[in-house]
Amino acid sequence: MTIQPSPIANCHSASPNATASAIHVSRDCRIRFKTLATLRTIGFLVLPAWLLMRVAGQWIDSREDIPGDPAWLGVGFLVGDAGLVLLVITALIAWWGVRRPERRWPVRAVAVISGLYLIALFVAMWAMTTKPD
Length: 133
Fold this sequence. Notes:
Blueprint: H1 19-63, H2 71-99, H3 105-130
Helix pairs in contact: 1-2, 2-3
């Protein structure tokens, strides 16, 4: 079993006299670091927080006496369940970006998917707080 080098291991490999090369290497290092930080944040913070949110939501739903099946509750569960799919896709794209740092599209894709999920969370929050039924 071989040990893989860190994705940011070659960040300071440019010669000190090559300014343009150093700027390019510095930019690549920042992108690699941000992509790796995004992947770790998704894995260690976002997915456990999603699990806590889903378990707590189901627990509260089972303890409360909510008559029927209100639409606001369905919106909350729908956004939560679809959010897991989006989070897994985002984690896979971020992983791809760490493994292929020369490509720029994974960074943009993670930003777009995360933004769409944030908008969906705000819609669910509005539906669950105002209860438009």
